[in-house]
Design goal:
Blueprint (H helix, E strand, L loop, with lengths): L3 E6 L4 E6 H14 L3 H12 L12 H8 L15
Antiparallel strand pairs: 1-2
Helix pairs in contact: 1-2
């Protein structure tokens, strides 16, 4: 990917010397601009990191009670609420 090549940039319409990563990214950008959602996803993943398939909350409920300093009030949808 570090090989430098001199090619015509379709955005500037000028010959420019860049590495292969630039040209591949530019190709993805041009595809994304034409509506290719797969290309858009690949660009976003490379810029911001791939999102996990799912988020897992591993915080036990008691830790939240201690953090907020309150006792649980029960489920507000039931008559067992103590609040």
């Amino acid at each position: 990917m570090e090989t430098m090549t001199d090619e015509k940039n379709p955005l500037t319409r000028k010959a420019e010397k860049h590495d292969q990563q630039f040209w591949v990214t530019l190709a993805l950008l041009l595809k994304a601009r034409k509506g290719d959602l797969s290309a858009w996803d690949k660009l976003m993943d490379s810029m911001h990191g791939k999102l996990p398939d799912r988020l897992i909350n591993e915080t036990p409920p008691l830790a939240l009670v201690k953090f907020f300093g309150e006792e649980p009030h029960g489920d507000p949808r039931t008559k067992d609420s103590r609040g």
